[in-house]
């Protein structure tokens, strides 16, 4: 820090061209830092768009040994004037991929497949998250490991297919409602 301050003091008394050169260097450093952050966001966010539909932050979590199901979470935004509908999902990691909702029934949190898909309102969004709407990867071929992303495809009734990369977070990236609901679903 002290060397930086003395350098600033030195350059202030130096010819203008030297001072400008230092400013340009600082500017380049700032640009480089900005580019690192921008590319990091691109790598981690995995936002994808098709038509008026944008899907952001797809994530799942690592599964304990022998687990046969995993949840998938993301945000779907629709900037269009018409509602659209998520009608199907597929992934290489599972035998099938379902669209689920969770609800309290007779005081117990349960989940069920949405036979008609999930509507995304015009100029609106739907959040798939633990304890709420989610994708369910059923009949997992291998366990999911933290830090090992996987690909999946969502299909919208109007916008069509959209390919996504899901980040896999730690097993602990969970909430109680979600965990309980999956435990109850012996049918899976
Ligand atoms: Cu489910």
From TrEMBL:
InterPro entries on file: LpqE-like, Lxx211020-like, PCuAC_sf
UniProt-listed Gene3D superfamilies: PCu(A)C copper chaperone
Protein name: Copper(I)-binding protein
């Amino acid at each position: 820090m002290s060397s930086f301050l003395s350098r600033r003091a030195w350059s202030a008394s130096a010819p203008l061209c030297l001072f400008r050169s230092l400013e340009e260097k600082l500017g380049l450093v700032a640009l480089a830092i900005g580019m690192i952050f921008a590319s990091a966001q691109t790598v981690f966010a995995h936002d994808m768009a098709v038509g008026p539909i944008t899907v952001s932050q797809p994530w799942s979590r690592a599964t304990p040994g022998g687990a046969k199901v995993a949840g998938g979470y993301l945000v779907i935004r629709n900037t269009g004037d018409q509602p659209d509908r998520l009608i199907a999902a597929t992934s290489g990691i599972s035998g099938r991929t379902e669209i689920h909702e969770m609800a309290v029934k007779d005081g117990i949190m349960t989940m069920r497949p949405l036979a008609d898909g999930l509507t995304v309102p015009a100029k609106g969004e739907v959040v798939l998250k633990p304890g709420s709407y989610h994708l369910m990867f059923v009949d997992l071929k291998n366990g999911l490991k933290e830090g090992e992303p996987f690909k999946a495809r969502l299909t919208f009734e109007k916008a069509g297919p959209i390919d996504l990369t899901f980040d896999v977070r730690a097993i602990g990236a969970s909430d109680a409602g979600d965990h309980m609901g999956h435990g109850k679903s012996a049918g899976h």
